[in-house]
Amino acid sequence: MQLSSLHGAWLVVRRTSFCAFACTLGGMESERRARAAVYARVSQDRAEGRSVSEQEAESRRACANNGWAVAAVYADNDVSASRFTTKRRADWTRLVSDLDSGMFDVLVLWEPSRGSRDLVTWAALLDVCRRQKVLLHVTSHGRTYDPGNPRDWRTLADDGVDSAYESEKQSQRITRAMAANAKAGRPHGRVPYGYVRSYDPATKAFVGQEPDPETAAVVREIIGRVGRAEPVIAVSRDLNARGVRPPAARQWSRQHVRRIALNPSYAGLRLYAGESYEGTWPALVDAAEFYAAKRLLEDPARRKTKPGRNKYLLSYIARCGVCDEQLQAAPRGRAVPSYFCAGGHVQAGVAWLDALIEGVVLARLDDGELLARLTVADDEQAVAARAKIGELRERLAEWRDAAANGKASPASLAHIETNLLADIEVEERKVQRAGAPAALVDLLGADVIADRWRTLQVAQRREVVKVLGMAITLNRANASGRHAAGAYDRVAVEWPQP
Ligand SMILES: [Zn+2]
Hints:
Bound molecules: zinc ion
Oligomer: single chain
CATH class of the domain at 36-168: Alpha Beta
CATH superfamily of the domain at 36-168: Resolvase, N-terminal catalytic domain
Structural class: alpha/beta
């Protein structure tokens, strides 16, 4: 009480001093009028409410009725004020800084939510007004508040809380709608390269998402080639060389190729909050192909920049027989490249070790039965895992329904949910692993495996070696001397148990 009356007294004193100032200057104005700032704002999402010009007109009338001089008008159109918006309100920022520099005595707003629905921003405004002794007039309330008055301040702060609460509720409604859309498998966001969307010509309602006759084949090619371990840079260069239309850019980049290969939309999947749902649109590739490409791109061993990573067949695959570290490869000191362990224990020429291992791999792959088993058995595993995922998801949905209907407690839902999600993750990893033999698919139909092998790039050959799962160890030479260095018994190859 005391504070507010003091504050009121101060305002009177200031007005008086302004009056004295004006009288000294010209004596025309008997009393200096309070300087008012008018702020108007309309957001896209609200059909009701007044337009910016209507708000301004009403606020100007309020100023005239109160004898305030409109010193400045600030307006933000089509911008949402909630904290969920990413757009910036240029005029709002300018207004707050002008208020803070003492340019105004009154701020006129249409309604508090027109000021700001973000509680922090609103509280900051009240703070500036209180500090600068600025009154706040809310046109729709037909009332003038003094933020320096604790009761007025509380009323304004409550209005801010209400607006923020509305905004939070709305955001939750949007989130729920998005989740419902995701679960129904409806597409979201921009149309992915490779698809077109159709809309009802009359109602403009979304009808469906269909493969684009021109670009769908490009998507299939990219995912197929990446899944077969072709380097991303080679794919993007080739697309550019052939003049294939890139997605919203002049040229294909590695990023374009990566983004397409990692986009689950192409496998007909809709991701939402870490879970995948069946989309309502046709897939361009099957899930096994998609996961094969994804697994390759997300392999942490590929992402690190390692010398000679994709240049040599066995770098970071073969290991040192002394320290078990992975061997690196580089032209070391002389022109002939060699594999070596960082600890300096072993070293061997690249050409020599590659020829030896290639011979072993090709002999292994000549066993058509093994090749068929490696490519088919995992396919079966993927089908089984996908069926299991569907089953687990259904159980999860049933539990969620039960909890929503009060038939299960939130605590038991949380427990079951954690377990089911973990099980789903295990099955999803199985599906991803099943994508591995893609590297072998190219070799599958070959009459002479060795001929087909020679057409593969080094990166693709490396994938074959990895898929076979062989452990290659390079041991120290038993005897010193030039001939001993090439001794075949230095190399141990172990096959995984079938
Ligand atoms: Zn070593």
